[in-house]
Amino acid sequence: MTAPAQTSATVPQPAYSPLFAAEIARAKSGVEASIRAGVHVPVPKDPGGGVTHEQHKRNYRTIFEGGQLYRLTGDVRYRDHVRDLLLAYADLYPKLGPHPAAANQVPGRLFWQSLNDSVFLVNAAQGYGAIRDTLPAADRTRIDDNMIRPMARFLSDGSPEVINRIHNHATWAAAGVGLSGYLLGDRDLVDKALLGLDKSGKAGFLRQLDLLFSPDGYYAEGPYYQRYALQPFVVFAAAIAAHDPDRKIFEHRDGIVLKAVRTAIEVTHDGNFLPLNDAMPDKSLRTEELYHAVAIAYAATKDPAFLSIADWQGRSVLTPAGQVMASDLAAGKAKPWPFASRLLGDGPDGEQGALVLLRTKPDPRGPLLVAKNSVQGMGHGHFDRLGWLYYDETGAVVTDYGAARFLNVEAKRGGRYLPENDSWASATVAHNTLVVDEQSHFAGNWKTGEKYPTQQLATALDGPTRYSIAEIGTAYKDVRFRRALLLLDVPGLANPLTLDLLRASSGTKHRYDLPLHFSGHIIDNDIAFTRNLAERPVLGKANGYQHLWVDGEGTKAGKARLTWMQGSRFYSYHMLPPAGARFIVAESGANDPEFNLRREPALIQRLDGAADATFVSLLEPHGEYDASSEAVVASSARVTALEHRREGAADLILVTLVDGRRFAVAVADDVAAGIKHSVTVDGRALAWTGPVGRFDLAKTGAKK
């Protein structure tokens, strides 16, 4: 007599922590829906976002989650549904050739690009691993030989141009191939995943760990792709730790896997990833990749700060690591994540520039000044050396466009990167850095840019005067420019000031443009703009300029100011451009026939016919707007004067506040830490050691 099949109703269920119980309920909802719908494994035909594409994505999620649910509940309905899906793929997969919707990427079999096939295999191998030992030998053989092994062979021997790269596509491929090798007991697949197809170690997972991350755990392609690449890195690392413990994978390269997880959390503001390079600005820590990464990192370290991140995410994963993490969170073991200023060196040796994060408090929503002095970022990199961003409680204030793409929205070119990603989003003028002669850095060639790093010259991460000083002389043929970005805590001001000093030098004359892209609505300015009210001319013809409408142009001698409002706060941007500079108010969206671009404002300081130029700017957050009570406080700037002097081998910036207080910031040309400098201001000698000095000066007549 055959025993009745067990279901979740007949198998006693343990008491799970709330977070893990919610994860089980969420997974059950999706898998039960798939069971009711039946097995649907269509012949692939659509690009990203299309019907067949989305169905295969749903299927690999169901395979992963169904396998985990069977492991947790013993309900054979989950096992049988996962088995039936896998058997259907075992019937379909041998019949497939290159995907019919393949475009400019290496085509997959199930998806338009092989990357998605790798993601499928990473998930399918984990789900299958949870049920494989319970299946009849005949079923295992069919799934092993007709699906798992052929997919792994396709993604390894069949795609050498992918798996042998140093790139996130190769990481996903290596993880899928390696997990399959461990699952099938196929050492050949495991070694190819770890060491490259020729097993020399010149490619493969371990080489990717060595070359794609800096010693600080910063990923070569930037935060957005660090997020995306983390899942295969941590999932495969966990498998290596379980199957090949002698490799001590979590100790490899001074613990680089776990450093990468920590750094991924650091390169966020209010949980949202900094949108550098080809990034979608809506990606946050609430993403599948980080659910896995946080759970595995906590399991490996038991660092209670990871629990606070899991709490913010409100999610776990249906793995033993996720279960332990959720249980410890419920037990009250979480501690706040220690957000702080960070210098994240770039490049495998950490010496190819840096991403600098300057924070004044450990609050994940607090002020954050980002100095992007990093390497190009490979093919996903943008031409924005020495660019910057600023965030606070209102969100992104000084902004980066990120990528021009509607991910998986089929109506927008199949969800792929749009033409405007090259013509606008990656162009230098779309960023907050210097543009020379309306040309992008490195003439818009990322392979050239990859050869030339930025020089991070000096950094101070703590104290009332935090700063980053960096330089590059290769972005343009005969122009060198240096930028000092300083985050200044000022007593009596609720928010820090950001001081920006940019100096460019050349042997020939050029047009210098310094854009500022910001979020908010313009409130006030003291620039005499000539407004284009009837027609909107376009700023230029190429290199991103063709996408900028010109709303107005103006001039002003001495200090100029533009004030805008975002959310509950006002922001004044004070400028001391070189003599003869003009100001251009612009908006993105010109020459955009398919309405692909967001309409966002920009202010450009423009100087024509100069060999050398110094731009001094100060961003001042101030005041408050309360919509509920209709109350407005301090909508006018607190900074009343901004002066710049060149004193010997140093730049001196003088700031006067509305209450009469006055302070000076000195930035020396020589950035060596132990060098002493001095200048004289109003008959007073000011001396300091190192690149930057800051001084309180005599108070001027107070203003009411």
Automatic annotation (TrEMBL):
InterPro entries, per the entry: Alginate_lyase_dom, Chondroitin_lyas, Hepar_II_III_C
SUPFAM superfamilies: Chondroitin AC/alginate lyase
Annotated Alginate lyase domain residues: 67-266
Record carries keyword Signal: yes
Subcellular location: Periplasm
Record has Cell division as a keyword: no
UniProt xrefs under Gene3D superfamilies: 2.70.98.70, Chondroitin AC/alginate lyase
Recorded superkingdom: Bacteria
Name of the protein in its database record: Alginate lyase
Source organism of the structure: Sphingopyxis witflariensis
